Every structure is written in structure tokens, then in C-alpha cells.
TrEMBL record:
UniProt topology in membrane: Multi-pass membrane protein
Compartments (UniProt record): Cell membrane
Key words of the record: Cell membrane, Membrane, Transmembrane, Transmembrane helix
Listed Gene3D superfamilies: Multidrug efflux transporter AcrB transmembrane domain
Source species of the chain: Piscinibacter terrae
Pfam family, one: MMPL
Any one of the GO CC terms: plasma membrane
InterPro entries: MMPL_dom (IPR004869), Mycobact_MmpL (IPR050545), SSD (IPR000731)
Taxonomic lineage of the native organism: Bacteria, Pseudomonadati, Pseudomonadota, Betaproteobacteria, Burkholderiales
Recorded superkingdom: Bacteria
Protein name per the record: RND family transporter
Residue ranges occupied by any SSD domain in the UniProt entry: 224-383
SUPFAM superfamilies reported for this sequence: Multidrug efflux transporter AcrB transmembrane domain
Amino acid sequence: MSRTTDRIEAFFERQLFAHRVPVLLFFLAVSALLAWQASLLRPDASLAKMVPASHPYIANYLHYENELRPLGNVVRIAVETTDGDIYSREYLDTLKKITDEVFYIPGVDRGNLKSLWTPNMDWVEVTEEGFQSGPVIAKDFDGSPGKLEQLKTNVLRSGAIGSIVANDGRSSVIVAPLFERDPDSGEKLDYGAFSRKLEALVRAKYENEHVRIHVTGMAKIVGDLIDGASSIAMFFGITFAMTLALLLAYSRCWRSTLITLLCCSLAVVWQLGIVRLLGFGLDPYAILVPFLTFAIGVSHAVQNINTMATERWLGRSTLDAAKATFRTLFVAGTIALLCDAVGFSTLLVIRIGAIQELAVSASVGVAVIIFTKMFLLPVLMSYAGVSQACLRHQERKAQSRQVVAHAISGVAEPGKAKLAALAALVLLGIGLLLARDLKIGDLDPGAPELRRESRYNRDVAFMTSHYSTSADVFVVMVTTPVGECGAYPVAAAVDRFQWEMENVPGVESSVSLFTGMKAMIAATYSGDLKWNAISRDRYISNSVYKALPGVLHNSECSMLPVLLFLKDHKADTLAGVVAAAEAFAAKHNDDGVKFILAAGNSGVEAATNIVVKQAERLMLLLVYGIVALLVWWEFKSWRMALCIMVPLAITSVLCEALMALLGLGVKVGTLPVIALGVGIGVDYGIYIVNRLEHFLRQGLPLKEAYFRTLTSTGVAVALTGVTLALGVSTWIFSAIKFHADMGLLLTFMFLWNMVGAIVMIPALAALIVRPVPQAQPSNQEAFA
């Protein structure tokens, strides 16, 4: 170590163990305060946090948010009858009651609510006398057979088949646009409360053997994510119990096990309390961070238990053993935790609110682990010590033949090291080959955040199979001078744009102001299809423009949306649509008309995919670069830094290959995994090299030094990997699919990083680290 780190270590050791009681009182007071704050923490999610608000697409959407609200954050509620079709008094009475219920749910944009019963649902017909129109359900509707037949005619004339009314006539949809903020109170929409009210006031109240309810929309996804996160407490309990059993089996000491779990639990409480003080809530993406905080804390505390038991077995008193443990682990543990923090903090380059909150929350968790593990745990252990059962277990380990350690330490021999390096190269090559198929974005239909068999995805499947209008809408905004949105030059450009986009793979159909205008012009001329075209005559276009729905243009007639209905929102589909739309805009934009992207749920998702793709490589460069610098700073050796970083890089490539094999795209839910895996996985290498350095400085040859490293800290490192993997493996059973995906990938990375560190570090050291002189060399000489 350098003199600076020696002085820092000595200072903290003196202050910590000379003032043990004040230290404990300080931790008690802070824990009480932060526990109170943590108790006030509530679930918090919003659509704004789940999208890249700084991306130009989202900025364009937000600029026209009020005009595009009916096309943006919308909930669709399909009311299905199991008895015949929708043209019955009983069904329509039920639909009216549900429409009224939805109307009064806070957050609903009541002026744009749409169903068969709302006034904005009308029909238009051309007769010999001219245009005739009226509401689909007339004011004098009484449910009589004659009125039901008239309703059926009105529905056909309204063009609602396939959009508001199902193709088979057995269901109809209530379209409920939402406000992100309550216009009266200004408070953010509580998606959890909104979803629960939908379930209580609509599904639970009206669904029976005659009526089925299907609900889709981003707000319902977020609400289901919040509800699915309620099982987190159960998973945390299972993780706690498994960790307790694992630590007890390893240490044979109740005292050290319980003290370790206490410190790690306090770290979780501190982290939640500080997050509350920072003004954050429990976002569905960040709700798993307490698991990571607990798992990281336990994984580092294992080293304390191992070192404390060894020092006590060597004959030191409880206090002296605690001091020796502090000296042994303070620098290595702090650097390892700083690397963890780096892995989390690099997520800040992803300009998506939910991910940045995750980064801040996780970084706070690592910071409090430094306090609870580095300072509180040694003080508590200086009082509690370890049990006689622990010492007897330590004696048995010392007298065992250490067959596994002997076998693994053989990798430090040049011949076996070359074989290990060759095997690593083969794995790397296979990983790179498979990782070529890795995609950016979602690869599954419906809501990939939820499991395929979830209620929401079954509702999406119902909508897809019974309605013609796709739920995946990509909106391109066309801007013009004020009052010119219906002019012929604009119409010609938009008509060509629609034609070109409808020939892009994945685009099923398109709708714009001029789709309706062409139909209205043809209707004006007795339905003659020869007139189903845009008109150069401004009087004709103006007369038709007034009769078209306001959702197809803004009030100033300076912006009109073009709706592209996509077959799905998969990564390749969105990439193709974006490329085609951008190319058209680059070629045809001028002062009179501009095509700007993008709105609609698919437009938002396309922007998210672009941000994720741009941030992925930058994030990896940052996490690897900063972690490598920290490792080099600690060991003052680029060779040893390389020995630590190479296994991490191989595991990252294998993780990407696994994602490709499992059909998981790189997206908001999976992108953090690689940064987390690298930041946390480097801990293994740091602890191994820290002990290896100690034995090499004693003049031992590499193989013997590594054997002693394995016998002293190798089992603890292996247990660290298992502990981390256990901590996240319970996520695999979550109802939320991206939680399950993160759990599976992190479990893989934690275990493979552990195996890679134990096997590859000695192999690489044997190949690239210079032989150590038999004299007592300095750290710089040994690892130059």
C-alpha cells in the first residue's frame, strides 16, 4: 500500500476503536431517523420517468402534447359480451354504466373520452339532400328493437367497426385519454391508484359470466408493475432466510451471522431513508435496489467473518482480531465498493428518469454499505467476537487437505495457464458469435415488462385478434404555416408520405387528415371513387376540412398528425419505420411543410431504443474504464488490472450471448444488468489479488501464493458469488418479467464473474506478470 492509504487506514482504525460507544450511539441515532423516513416511502411511477424526455422525438411530442393527448397516454377498455352481440339493451346499459364510471376516475381527460355513449361518437352520411350526421346513440334511444336496428346502422355509418366496435360485433371499446397531471390540483397521476380504481370500479364491479373486461394502455402497464412489485417483500424474506442459512453453514457462528445480517439490513433501511429524503419514491425499476444493497453488503461482510475467524484462531483477542480485520479489508473493501458505485453511477448516462433514479438509489446503497460494513460491523464484532464452534470449524478447515484449492492453484502453472487462456478465448469467440444476434428494444408482443401469460398481455391479445386498429401507433407530426394544414402542397406531401410508409415492412395502414378528406370529397360526389383524391381546389378542401374530427389537426391548422399503425413494436419494425420516416423528412422538408418525429406509443418506444443504443457503448466504456483505473490505482500494476478486468469482459460478452439466445433485447429493463454485473463482479478479483499480493510480497512463488490465497480467502470469494446470486435469483419468480430477466442475467453474471476470477486471475498472472524476486519487494516491484 502507499503511505497515503496507510495513514488513512491508521487514522480510521484509531478513531473507530478508541471511540466505540460514541460510534454505536451515532449509528443508532441515524438508523432511527432513516427508519422513520423509510416508513414514509411510497410507490412512485410515471410515464414521464420511463421515457427519454431529452430526446428530440419526445421534445416534439411534448410540444404538441395537448393536441396529441387522444393519441398519447390512452387507456382502452374493451367491454365484451358472452351472449350474442353488443346490440342488446342489457349490454348497452352495462356499457353506459362503465362509461360513467370511467368518466369520473381522476386523471381521465373527460373531454376526449370516447365510447358508443359519448357525444363525440357520431356518424356521417351523404344523401340526395346532402350530408347528414348525428350521434351513434340517439338522445331518444330506449333499447327497443327498432332503436337497436337504428344503432346498428349508425355504427356501420360511423366507420367504427374495427376501432371502437370489434370486427365480430361482440365487444366495444371505451377510449380514455389521461392527464399526466391533474389539471385542478397539479399533482402527478398516481398510476397505482388509477389502476386499482379501474380494477375495482370496472373489472371487479361489472365482469361476470355475461360480460368480460379487457384493459390496455401504458397507464395499466405501470399500474400492473406497481401491483406486481408488492410481492417484493416476500422475495426479500426468502432471500433473508437463505442468506441466514448460508452464512450460518459457512461460519458455524450465530453471533457473527446475526450481526452481519443486522448491518446489512441497516444498510437497506439507510438506503430507503436517504432515497426518501432525496424526494424519490419506489419506482418499479428501482424497487429491486434494496435487494442489491442487502446482497452486496452480505457478500462483503463474508470477508469480515472469514478474516475475523482466522485472526481469532491465530490467537488474537477479540478486540485485536477486529482491528486486524479492519486493517486487512479496509482499503480492498472500500475500493471494491467504489467500483460497485461506479458500475451504478455510469447508468446516469442513460437519459431516462427511471434508470437515473435507479443509479442514484443504488449508489446511495453502496455508500451506506461503506459505513455499515466498514465501520459498524468491525465495532460490533469487537464486542461479540466469534463462537467456539466457529473456531473449531476454522481448525478443521486448516487441517483439511484442501484438495480443491490444490487443484485450482495448478492453473497458476504456465502450461495449465495456457490451456485456461485458450478455453477463455474459445468461450469469448462463441459469445461474440452469438451476441451478434442481440437486438435493441422489445422482441415480444404486448407488454414485455410483464409475463406472456399475464392478464394484461391476454387483454392485448384479445384486442389484436378482434380489432383492426393496431395498438402500436407511430405518429409523425406535420407542421405548416398557420392555417395551411389543409392546403394542396401539404396534402400532396402527406399523401406521398403515407403511400411510401405503407410500403415499409411492419406498417399495416396509415391515417391522416387527408385520409378523411379524400373520403369526404368522394362522398360529396355521390361516392364516386374517381373523386377519392386530394383536391387542388381550396374551396373544396376547406369545406371538407370543417367536417373532419379535430383530432386530425390542431386548432390553428398548423400541425396535423399522421398515424402509422404497426403490426408490432419489435425492435426491427421500429428501426425500419424510423429510418424510412427520417429519410423522407430529410428529402422533403422545406419552409412550407416539415415532417417531425415522433409520438404515439411506438414513437416513444422508438426514441427509447435510440437512447438505449447510444448509451450502451458509452456506459460500457465508462464502467470498464473507471473500474480499471481504480483497480490500477490500488495495485499500481496494469498487468494485475488486466488480470482482473479480462474475466469481467468475457462474462459481459457471454451475458449478451445469453440474452440473444433467450430472445431478450437490450432495453430499459436489461441495459443496467451489464453495468451492475461489472461493478459488483470486480469485487471478487480485488479480494483475490489483495491476498495474492500479500503472499507474493513474502517471496512465495505464484502457485504457492495462490494456493494460500484460496485457503485464506478463496472460499469466502466463492461464498460471495453464491450469496450475490442467491440475493437476485429470487427475482426470477417475480410476476414482473423484466424483474425476472434481471434476476436471471445477474445470477449468471455473478456466478460467472466468480468462476472467472478464481480461474482466470492466476492463469493470466502466470502468463503476463513478471516473476517476483525472493527478497521482500515493494508492491510496485512485484507488480510492475
